[in-house]
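ok posting inputs for the zinc ion job
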Amino acid sequence: MIRYLRLLFLGAVFSACATMAADSLDAAENKALPEPALEKVADGVWIHKSYEIIEPWGPVLSQGLVVKTDDGVVLVDTAWDNEATKKILALIETAAGEPPKAAILTHAHQDKMGGMQALHDASIQTSAYVLTNDDAVDRDLIPAGGWFGNTFAGRSSSFQFHDVISGASIDSGLMTFIPGPGHTRDNIVIYYESAKILFGGCLIRPGKSNSLGNTADADIANWANAVRKVAAEFPDAEIIIPSHGAKGGRELLDHTIALADAANE
Ligand SMILES: [Zn+2]
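and the output
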């Protein structure tokens, strides 16, 4: 029961993830926020990090992925807002030698899509699950320019983007997977097979976390099932990256399943 109450509390407070109040932005100006940064995890692969003040915790880290492929750089998720996203784009250009050509967004919350305008201003092709674009509009976020559909649910699909000059489709080497509702109904995960890296977004909880985090839009009853599908779809994934904490191994999948099962009791 205590656990249940704690989840309710966290859900209520942490729903700021979904709709960031102006208060928090004001607070951010008054406190020192860590600067946006990149963490290299493999050849041509980085985690991008940005922070937002969420009371009462203070700065909350959110992470996305950057992958440099032979045909261009692909970004997974924006930073919390446009300003931080612009800084991330500049860091990517320095680290990868070129700006991203395309971006995938992993669900419709501010920590993943708060910087959409910065991507569109930089002429980056953006793509998201159709439900993500639907929910983005409802949550005052800017939807992606392209979408992929329910036909991909439950099986992984290679993410392709268009070469602006030739118009040809380019295989990014990244796989998208729609596991079903968990953190949100539209959450997806991204797999980069070359480096055995799975970006789990907010569906996957950090190892140090003892709660499911923001459950304001969650399907707690299906959360463990969704993670089991991810684990089964990518048996070779070795590095697992969550949105809100340190990367780890496959134990993060088991940890999240355990948290979701506990939340269902
Ligand atoms: Zn979220």
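notes: The first helix runs from residue 2 to 14. The first strand starts at residue 37 and ends at 42.
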